[in-house]
Amino acid sequence: MWPLTIILLTNILLAMSQIHKIVLKERETLIERELKMMVGYSIELSATELVANEIIMDLKRKEIDYGFWNPKYYHLLKHFFEYKELVKDTKLYKILKSMPKGAVLHGHDTGMLGPDYVLELTYCDDLWICFKEDQSDVNFVFAKHRPTGWCATKWERAMDIRRTTNATEFDAKLRKFFTLVVVNPQEVYTDLDTVWDYFMKYFIRTGPLFTYKPVWEKYYYDTLFALREDNVMYFEIRTVLPPLYDLEGNIYNSVDTAKSYKRVTEKFKKDYPDFFGAKLIYAPVRSVARETLKNYIKVAKEIHKLMPDFLAGFDLVSQEDLGKPLKEFYPDLAKSGLNLYFHAGETNWYGTSTDENLFDAVLLGTKRIGHAFALVKHPLLMKEVKKRKIALEVNVISNVVLKLVDDVRNHPLATYLSQNMPVVLSSDDPGVWEAEILTHDFYVAFMGVSSRHADLKMLKQLALNSLYYSSYGEKHKLVREFQIRWMKFIGSILKMK
Amino acid sequence: MWPLTIILLTNILLAMSQIHKIVLKERETLIERELKMMVGYSIELSATELVANEIIMDLKRKEIDYGFWNPKYYHLLKHFFEYKELVKDTKLYKILKSMPKGAVLHGHDTGMLGPDYVLELTYCDDLWICFKEDQSDVNFVFAKHRPTGWCATKWERAMDIRRTTNATEFDAKLRKFFTLVVVNPQEVYTDLDTVWDYFMKYFIRTGPLFTYKPVWEKYYYDTLFALREDNVMYFEIRTVLPPLYDLEGNIYNSVDTAKSYKRVTEKFKKDYPDFFGAKLIYAPVRSVARETLKNYIKVAKEIHKLMPDFLAGFDLVSQEDLGKPLKEFYPDLAKSGLNLYFHAGETNWYGTSTDENLFDAVLLGTKRIGHAFALVKHPLLMKEVKKRKIALEVNVISNVVLKLVDDVRNHPLATYLSQNMPVVLSSDDPGVWEAEILTHDFYVAFMGVSSRHADLKMLKQLALNSLYYSSYGEKHKLVREFQIRWMKFIGSILKMK
């Protein structure tokens, strides 16, 4: 009898292994099907891109697998301040730096450049400085003669201080006022309100330094330069359009400031014809009375009339939880006729008025949403956003520094990427946290947030998204040039082999 | 001409206000439509439930709005250890405590009761204690005579130590070994691996204390008692089924341990006939060779044969990132014929083998998923899970303590709730972090994670889900009794008014 038993057993075992194979096949198919839902997975890579992809993915997988087994030593599980310089030495970072990244669609006027740059600005002639009595803060102003008022101690020329004291020490002291970076962020920035307080103080403190017209224009010119250096080809700047001033006592209004922006943009494009320029999103502070908002809209319309191609549209800024919800401005915003690019859902407070700004932004016909951090809790809105092709301007590092999320792996971007939401990566105020103007955000998103499987297709799509969802007029030109640069980039990676 | 202008203007203004109203209406409709997608929103509340709901929602909104404007002082933005005792005094906590919460479907054998209870166990006769030389750890064993081995210092009777030294101080020292709670969790538990190390040591250290058969049975009896006190009516316990021992030198195997569980369950049901009992999920550790797994399955089958109604099914436990991925056990698990209740996706590592345990769990036909923390990054699987009615056993406090997420508002549960995923709230190992056996998890989910709008309907649905997705045989009886208790609960809230 036993030969029959053996045959039977063999058959059963064969059938078993058959079932096992079928299940494993099903597993593969399911994972594959889901991967195809990710951002970028409709892209077909060329033969050379496939080779470049393997180089990139080898590096990515090696780093992530190291982190998986050694989480204590993995950069991306620490605070951004701890690893931001360290990662710059990695091959992957360098690749991402050299990668054409498309456009920056979410960046704020005086938050783009870091403290070393701002410190340099304090070497400009005619800058006066006043320290608070306890040295805890500092005021600036440009003037021909010693200013009066706004100072409890004494206004002194920056130049004189440097001549009469230790300039190195003085610079080190000053630099601290131009950055949020500290060695112990968890202790200093105990909660979201606290870090926003420091963040707002940066803008208030540096206001009179930056709004000196020559400095304003220089800062913006150098911002464009930094973007270009970081392989960004186009910029949409959110600006509060503050009044500028000069040494002659002239005060320039918001429309003048917009004109300044336009003039500098044109100069920059002339100096660097490979850069595709910039547009403005007028984005004044949101915590205002309705009358003020009406005035904002008037200003925006005036600018639109004067420079219809230069003004992309309108937004409202500053800490969303403390500001007015959009719904309070409904009639004014609805009938404004302006293109809207609202910040919305930059909050953790699910079901509050801030959270519901997401509904208002969508209903008001926003073209893109700034942050959209809370959108992941809104299944209906997520569908609407996809259907209406409203891009999400995601700023991961900003959300970490400003304490919406600690562990980048919990950032909702992971979910948005997994569902091919119309995501655009941006950097918000990279200078204030000493990030590079865009590369760091790509690095963190790619290495910390996206799936271990997410590859060159995703990177390319994210760059392309920033062009598709921009308000640039002739997008085909933008995309064509992008493709040329992309091929060069791929070639440069292949040389690494 | 101007009367005509006025008429025209009036008409325009009227039309404007009309548009405004329409937009606001659309807004309301959209928010309403999305709310209807949430967990519990198909439930129609009775007139009395509506009144109770208003009482609950007044309390909830007041607390959340306070937090919104005073985040620095809001309990739920701190670490659980900081607020766990404080919230117990709130009205809402007391309501949730008195609320019938259904079943606990995800709890581990010796993680259910807190350090005060465990300390009491060390008063049992015949307990011997051995401290490490540096006092950094402690071993226990029950024995008639002084044990030999397993001790670098000296085995001493607990009773003798208490008699010869300061018992209060000794108890305080001992208690620390029975809890993860510390005053500075962020400093002690720097990363996930570190906290898991402490967590595992708790189980290793207390092993010989708990596996003394009389203690094991007492602990389990008292666990059922604590559940009943917390208004839980049924329990599915995940157990490693360790060998038990007694003073006579007998060692009982896993099947015997299962029998112990069954006997105590029956005794408890006799003592408290209003409790609906318990079932076992045999859940040994996952970091084993395939041969060991085969043996696990053999044991599970044996138990199933002996007590088909008492064994709910099979699972694998301990730190998922460090364990074997499910796919390595595919053929054995696929053909086991057991009901499966897998832990899966208790990880932040998107796209790794741990993350993909979610696919394997689903493909292997798991009835529920333990944690499913990472599921939010898997759009296809989310659909599958909903279609196949696979419940997600979410343990928010566990995920905070074990460092998957810091800010509870970023827990993926918020997304699961928003999409009416089949969620069941549970508590994992509440004793180890000194949480109440279920109420704290309801409190944190309701006040910290769910929408400000989420109300009694959600609470009721979550309790009902724990019954629907249980493996209890006669669910209609369970649900009928639940409804009776629910009505009493509603009555008690109404009396508060």
From TrEMBL, chains A, B:
Pfam families: A_deaminase, A_deaminase_N
EC number, as in UniProt: 3.5.4.4
Main location: secreted
GO biological process: adenosine catabolic process; inosine biosynthetic process
Domain Adenosine deaminase as annotated: residue spans: 198-474
Adenosine/AMP deaminase N-terminal domain span: 25-96
Reactions catalysed, as given in the entry: adenosine + H2O + H(+) = inosine + NH4(+)
Keyword list, A-Z: Hydrolase, Metal-binding, Secreted, Signal
UniProt-recorded Gene Ontology molecular function terms: adenosine deaminase activity; metal ion binding
Signal sequence coordinates: 1-17
Enzyme class name: hydrolase
Superkingdom per UniProt: Eukaryota
Annotated localization: Secreted
Cofactor(s) this protein cannot do without: Zn(2+)
Keyword Translocase (UniProt): no
Family classification: Belongs to the metallo-dependent hydrolases superfamily. Adenosine and AMP deaminases family. ADGF subfamily.
PANTHER family listed in its UniProt record: ADENOSINE DEAMINASE, ADENOSINE DEAMINASE 2
Name recorded for this polypeptide: Adenosine deaminase
